[in-house]
From TrEMBL:
The keyword Signal applies. InterPro entries: AraF, Bact_Solute-Bind_Prot2, Peripla_BP_I, SBP_2_dom. PANTHER family: ABC TRANSPORTER PERIPLASMIC-BINDING PROTEIN YPHF, D-XYLOSE-BINDING PERIPLASMIC PROTEIN. This is Arabinose ABC transporter substrate-binding protein. It comes from Clostridium beijerinckii. Its main location: other.
Amino acid sequence: MNKKILLVVIIILSSFAFSCDTTTSKQSSKKSDLVIAVIYKTLDEAWFQEESEAAKNKALAMGAKDVITIDAKMNPDVYLSALDNLITQKVDGILICVPDQKLSKITIDRCKKSNIAVIACDDPLTDDEGNYIAPFVGIDSNQIGRDMTSLMVDYLEKNNKLSDPNSSGLLLMSMDSVSSCIPRTEGQLETFKDRLPSFPRENIFQAEYNGQSEKSFYSAASTITSNKNIKNWFVMSANEAGTIGAIKALDQSGLAENAVAVGVGGYVAKDEFQKQNSPLIASAYISATEVGEIAAQELMENLLLNKNIPDKYLVKDKVITKDNYKNLVIK
């Protein structure tokens, strides 16, 4: 009788051990077959090209079998079609920068239903009240706006650029359709008003664009043409493409020589700094590589180690000028 009981116990333990080994084997196989995707709202801009490449390389180095890179071309239909294809392919995780934040909820709903991990890069995924509904890797938008504005005002005061405020204008290139950019513009405007309380409020202009230099050019050109009394323009933007577009519009209008501009990003600044008389005096350099690598690392650690993804990771900036930009590694 005791021998029979012992035999039953051995069989049960053997079955359990086999089951555990099979489960472990399946889990290990799954982790070695990880496929992730990166979807960016556009890959026309140098920033997103570098960030997507950095994310891909980091994920592959950490053991991903494949990384699928998709350009949404600033088109919601292209984006949603790509998202559905990735879900059909059963990818394990996605790094996302949406072309329109109104797509946030549908993105999260579809990914949750298919148990796909998601991290938002650069532009957060938000609900109707602006609350984050997915982990986010990006920058401290408001503080960068304030820092760059203070730098500009210091320059204007030091170089006697405020002697004729009535013929001077502040041009804020804004992206109110992207929630992460709104605090940047707010920080710029609040700091400018605080530092220069007597500056004519009627000479402060805000022009909307979609993040691309071409749209910025047309929006800035319209504002400049409509305000011919302004001869000295001070330009700030939500990203560097916005600043560059505005500079081109000023150049076309023959007003670039007296203009002063600052940017955010640092990826086109190096080209402007090489020009003899560019209005661009400084830019907040942010490493797209760092954003991409951190996002990919957090996603892979979640998939490989079940590590919780932080709700928010903010990358710090460095101010670059014509004097120091060559010391930074800018691709």
